[in-house]
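User: I'm putting together notes for a lab meeting next week and I want to include a structural view of one of the chains we've been expressing. I don't have a solved structure, so I'd like a prediction I can at least talk through. The sequence is below, exactly as it appears in our construct file.
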Amino acid sequence: MSVRGSLFLVASVISGRDSDRAESASRLRRAGDLAAALGRDGNHAWTAFGPTNVAIHAVSAAVESGQAKLAVALAEDLDTTGFPDGLRSRRAQLNVDLARAHAQLREDAAAVVNLLEAERIAPEVPRCNVIVRDLLGELLKRERRSATPGLRAVAARAGARR
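Assistant: Thanks for the context. Below is the predicted structure for the 162-residue chain, given as structure tokens.
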């Protein structure tokens, strides 16, 4: 059930990236049904599958399909503290997706806050994630130092440039 659900989650994000919102939503629903049947967050077969990961992927799919406001709204009440130990990258991914959503909305200060939180949770994320480095470069191009303290420091640690 976890492996099948995880495949639906990946397929949902891919559909979002292809701007096929209906297919993305359908795949998220199918994953959600499996997560509900499972009844809790787990990490069977290293899938990190469960209701929380379905919610995180809903945020990711919204960001990928350009629905930044929806992504922020979906993340508002999302609590990742119940996630099994060892799933720092999933917790950090939520912050990366929120940073991307805020950047799409041109809310750069909120984007930086989420990138700093992702780095706090999983310090390797800014250094190893190409999407994060690209996002940092975009934020640097339109930087307003008084509005985005911390941006240059996290960008330097990630090796990002304008």
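A couple of points you could mention at the meeting. Residues 4 and 150 are 40 Å apart (CA to CA). The chain has a mean pLDDT of 92.

User: Perfect, that's what I needed.
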